[in-house]
Amino acid sequence: MATGTASGKGLSSKETRQRVPPFGSVDDYLKRKREKIEVEHEEVAFSTSKKTTRSPVKGNSQDSRRLENKAMEELKEMIINMTSSLKEDVKNNHDQLMKNTNELVSMREFMQKREDEWIKEKKAWENAKKILTDHNSRK
Predict the structure, then answer these.
(1) How many Å apart are CA 41 and CA 78, to the nearest integer?
(2) pLDDT computed for residue 1 by the predictor
(3) Which of 4, 1, 3 is CA-nearest to residue 20?
(4) Total domains, the chain
């Protein structure tokens, strides 16, 4: 009876359903029971474990404090150097941006002047064409 059914005993389907355990087959039940035991064991093992932090240097706490202070000073120095480097980069980027902006403005002004000159030349050619057509039509 590995599957939990009562086949071959002449029971109705209602009686068969009542006799099937709610957990499925016996193998499934045993498997879940083993998993539950393993989980409980892991929880107990986890709750009893302790984390200990040890000083990197064997000796008294003053030595370790000196090392920590030295490391903090090195970090502060590194942060100050990085900050000044970033400030310099920002300044350089700003200067380059201003230079590029000024160049774009001057190019725009140049293009506007060229467009104005082209419009004047176009009007001059149209006037010359009009004068020539008027002169030719009088003949």
Answers:
(1) 47
(2) 46
(3) 4
(4) 1
Do 55 and 61 contact (CB within 8 A), yes or no?
yes
Domain that holds residue 35: 13-48
Q: How many residues does the chain have?
A: 139
| 71 in any annotated domain | no
User: For the chain, how big is the Rg over CA atoms in Å?
Assistant: 46
Residue 27 is encoded by which pair of tokens?
């193998």
Segment 33-59 mean pLDDT: 56
Half-sphere exposure of 46 (CA within 13 A, CB side): 6
Angle at 63 between CA 57 and CA 68, to 5 degrees: 85
CB 30 within 8 A of CB 37: no
pLDDT band at 38 (very low <50, low <70, confident <90, very high): low
| pLDDT, average across residues 5-12 | 52
